[in-house]
Amino acid sequence: MTRKYQAECPVPVKRAVMVQTWENLVYLHWAYEPEQVQSLLPEGLLVDTFAGNAYVGLIPFQMRGIGVPHLPAVPYLGTFPEVNVRTYVIRNGIPGVWFFSLDINRMLPTFVARTTYSLPYCFGKVSHGIQQVDNTSIVETLVQRRWPQGVEASTELRVEVGNKIEVPSDFEHFLSARWGLYSQTLRKKIRYAPVSHEPWPLHSANALHVDDSLVQAAGLPTPTGEVHALFSPGVSVRVGLPSTKFVE
Fold this sequence. Notes:
The protein has helices at residues 34-38, 107-116, 170-176, 214-217; strands at 18-32, 46-47, 54-67, 80-91, 94-104, 121-133, 136-147, 154-164, 180-184, 190-196, 203-212, 228-239. It is mainly β. The protein starts with 17 loop residues before the first strand and ends in a 9-residue tail after the last strand.
C-alpha cells in the first residue's frame, strides 16, 4: 500500500542552525529496482519506494543566502548552484533524503559540508540558470566535476518549465515533500537533520536534453526508462542540527 506524504512540514524547525533559499529547482527522477539502490545505502537505512519502485533523482538548483538565523547571509560563499544525486529512505518511520553526491563550484563550502554534515559534496565547474526563450522558461545546467579525483563525472541538462500544478499527486509529494536528510558519520553513525519550509510550489516540466554521468558515478546503473521531470521556483529553508537522537 502506497503511503501518503505530507505536503506541509509536520514538525517545523524551531532552532535552525542554518537558513538559506533554494531557487529554480529541477527534479529529474528515474525508477530503479529497490535492490539496486538498497545495496548502496548504509546499514540501518531502508530505501523508500512508491508503487514498488525506488527513485533516484538528479536535482539542480540555485542555493542562495546561506547564513545563520538573525544574521546577514554569507557573501559570495553563501550563494552558488548545486546539483545533487539523491534517493529516498526511511528509518524508524521517519522518511528523508539520502545524498549520493552534491556538486558545487565553491571549495570552502565543499569541505565545510563534508566535515560538519558528513555530506558527499564535490567541487568543480557548475552553472545553473533560467532564461526566457519564445515565452517559455528554459533551465540549463552544466557540471564538470574536478574533485574528488579518480572518477570523471559531468552533466548537461536543458529543461522546459510547464504549467503550475495546482494539486500535486501523491507521487509528486513522494518526490518532493521530504522534511529531513540523512547522513553517516565517520564512525558509521546515522544522523538526521530536520528541514522545514513552506509547501513546494510545483510545475510540470519537460526534459529537452539530458547527458549525465553523475548518477553512474554514484555507483548506480545507467538509468533506463522515461525520466520524470518537475520544476519549482523555490522555497525558504530552515535546517536543524544533525543528530542521532531522531533515529535511534
